[in-house]
Amino acid sequence: MDVQTLTYLFVGGSFALYIGIAIWSRAGSTKDFYVAGGGVSPIANGAATAADWMSAASFISMAGIIAYSGYDASVYLMGWTGGYVLLAMLLAPYLRKFGKFTVPDFIGDRYYSNVARTVAVICVIFVSFTYVAGQMRGTGIVFARFLEVNVNTGVVIGMGIVFFYAVLGGMKGITYTQVAQYCVLIFAFLVPAVFLSIMMTGHVLPQTGFGATVLDAAGNDSGVYLLNKLDQVVTDLGFTEYTDGSKSTIDVFFIAAALMCGTAGLPHVIVRFFTVPRVKDARISAGWALFFIALLYTSAPAVGAFARLNLIDTVHQTQYEKLPDWFYNWENSGLIGWVDKNGDGAVQMSAGAPFEGKPTFAGTRAEVQGSYGERVLTNTPTDNDAEVYIDRDIIVLANPEIGNLPAWVIALVAAGGVAAALSTAAGLLLVISSAISHDLLKKTLKPDITEKQELLAARGAAVVAICIAGYFGINPPGFVAQVVAFAFGLAAASFFPVILMGIFYKRMNKEGAIAGMLTGLAFTFCYIVFFKFVSPELNSAEHWLLGVSPEGIGTVGMLLNFAVAFTVSRFTAPPPDHIQHIVEDIRVPRGAGEAVAH
């Protein structure tokens, strides 16, 4: 059976499974819609949380960034995994004990203010839409290659699938769908990783293969370590050493901190801990989720390294007409471009940007062909020797094809990529709809609406959110992992300080929380927009504030949030006594009492 047929079977079968689960577990009440009725088991919630959190950025894009950036990409591994530990230890159990549906619900009640609740809703919308853009883009990339449609059509297909099971099932449907999606995505990520590790190093585990010696063409130990060989290969082509970082220490620190604190402030991850029956279950499910997440994250560096080495070996100095089929397939999707700058008909890989921006094509291969049958590019080539543009987001999806793995593995990876993107997209869209229907409408604007009307409003908000998310998926501001990094920065700058101080600092009041959230969000958002959209030509270290990139500026926004919130709270009235008692209560284990002397 060919790759195309297998892909239809794998992706179609997974869709049927997700939709069947959504119908079986459809929400019948607002509690089902928002927190799955609060009765999800810790292991199931751990798997659902892992799927919710391991988005298209983790599955599709992270290994691609590692493949190209090498050491610099370690910041994503440190930030995202470290942030989950922070969330599990510092926030999740206390938020579960507080017992609210959403993050704005916690902020509105903790800070005894509908204004604070509304500001939190605004923060949710900014963070979630930035995050979901990356997921819809990831979905479009998967469909572009494996269903042989363009990326924009792929985004629209993904919108339709998410619409069906997110709007129908709510959190209850999404939770059990995400359990299935985790099983699909982790199997799809690890199977090719194991295959490639055995083929390239002789090690079954990619985690150990990453630090092992590579095999030669005859299958014997070459005595050359994988990373040493990769260093040599990329430096010969003019790139910096794979194991040497180009980012400044301060930027690495700020990006890692933004990703860590952003993880701990992500509303769609936090809400997962409201779905378990007890506070103890929140801690247990956090432990399971960390285990499930580690399976992928400890394999990603090896996958990135295998992909980069295989890519260069397969493509560099190969005549265009003799390239493997995967190159032509991805070229048809518009995510690879080649221009013959020296007229030799061979593909040359070297450092530098081969085109002015991403490749734009004069038409399809059937409509416009170059001298060797390639798609003709319309954007002006730059003056260096680089001839190839490869979108980083295709590395994991193309990896099985580059490594010449069986067709069923290629189809499995397609299903895994879709599962990763859709699982997180559904969670984010639910958070957006819940913030609008529950926190803005029910709690603020129209408190007298019935449960049925609230549920209808939630579903209507999800429909609008899907349409907006689709637009951002078609017009993304960067690579999937970059877009997601911006979302983490916004979450760190807006939510993390007020949630942390809301739990551990009973003197924090509504004035401080509102001022802090607005300051952190506005500063971080404006900084990212300026360097990514208004003046992208200035997006370099010499123009950044303190040498901090847009990916790391969320840490500065977070520090401003802390400073402003603390200062304002000291010059305004303290919270009411009953609020301070609530803060003390959520930090004390249920049933604990004062020590009694004997």
Care to describe what's here?
With 598 residues, this protein is mostly helical. The chain folds into three domains: 1-23 and 41-248 and 288-312 and 391-476, Sodium/glucose cotransporter, CATH 1.20.1730; 336-390, no CATH class; 499-588, no CATH class. 67% of the residues lie in helices and 3% in strands. It contains 22 helices and six strands. It has helices spanning 3-24, 30-35, 42-53, 56-69, 74-98, 103-110, 114-146, 151-201, 206-209, 226-236, 249-264, 267-270, 279-297, 300-315, 325-332, 395-402, 407-445, 451-474, 480-504, 510-534, 553-570, 577-586, and strands at residues 213-215, 221-225, 318-319, 336-338, 346-347, 388-390. It has a two-stranded antiparallel ribbon. It has a two-stranded antiparallel sheet with strand order 3-5. The protein has a two-stranded antiparallel ribbon with strand order 4-6. Helix 4 crosses helix 14 (300-315). The chain starts with a helix and ends in a 12-residue tail after the last helix. Mean pLDDT is 81; it is low at 29-38 and 591-598. Its main location: membrane.
Q: Radius of gyration, rounded?
A: 24 Å
Shape annotation: globular
Number of strands: 6
State the helix count: 22
The figure for the number of domains is 3
Please provide a brief summary of the model:
The protein has 598 residues and is mostly helical. Helices cover 67% and strands 3% of the residues.
Topology:
Elements: H1 3-24, H2 30-35, H3 42-53, H4 56-69, H5 74-98, H6 103-110, H7 114-146, H8 151-201, H9 206-209, E1 213-215, E2 221-225, H10 226-236, H11 249-264, H12 267-270, H13 279-297, H14 300-315, E3 318-319, H15 325-332, E4 336-338, E5 346-347, E6 388-390, H16 395-402, H17 407-445, H18 451-474, H19 480-504, H20 510-534, H21 553-570, H22 577-586
Antiparallel strand pairs: 1-2, 3-5, 4-6
Helix pairs in contact: 1-8, 1-17, 3-8, 3-13, 4-7, 4-14, 4-17, 4-19, 5-11, 5-13, 6-7, 6-17, 7-8, 7-17, 7-18, 7-19, 7-20, 8-14, 8-17, 8-18, 10-14, 11-19, 11-21, 14-16, 16-17, 17-18, 19-20, 19-21, 20-21
